[in-house]
Amino acid sequence: MAKALFAVALWLFVSFSVLAAAPQKKPPSWAELTQEQRQILAPLAPDWDKLDAQRRRKWLGIVKRYPTMAPEEQAKVQRRMQPWAKLTPEERRAARERYKNLQKLPPDKRQSLREKWEEYQRLPEEQRKQLEAAGKAPKPAPKSRAKPGASAPAPTSTPVPAAAE
């Protein structure tokens, strides 16, 4: 009996070692993507070949779910795709943490915050700068490597694409 258990344990150890050591298939380059994948991932085209393998796999996972999304959700994914991809891993982690904290708030508090954020966004740039100088402006999201003028996602109760790291 002990020999059988030892044999099974050894077999499991060897099997898992081989699986762990097996190289994962490299995600496709931009040129290797299908036409449909390129169309969905179009906002990432300039940066696709620079993304690491893990991030490419996660974006491909989003592409698989994309056809089942409502048109509004598809549009939202497209709008947020490039700024999200340009965030550093630390910035994405911080965004996910802020989202989790917002989700813990009662719905009325979340709605109040959303309204205040929208009100702040409607203010003229000069007035926002004055509030910032006075320390009364909402705390900005971490600066990303996104192009100047690209807006960071506003704090909302909609999910941040967690699969995008």
Overall description:
It is a single chain. The chain is built from seven helices and no strands. Residues 142-165 have low confidence and may be disordered. The termini are far apart. It is mostly helical.
Short key terms for the protein model shown above:
58% helix, single chain, 165 residues, mainly alpha, disordered C terminus, 7 helices
Helix content: 55-70%
Beginning-to-end CA distance, first to last residue: 47 Å
SS strand fraction = under 5%
What value does the Rg take, in angstroms?
22 Å
Q: Briefly, what is this?
A:
This protein is mainly α and 165 residues long.
Note the topology.
Layout: H1 2-21, H2 35-40, H3 53-65, H4 71-86, H5 89-104, H6 107-122, H7 125-133
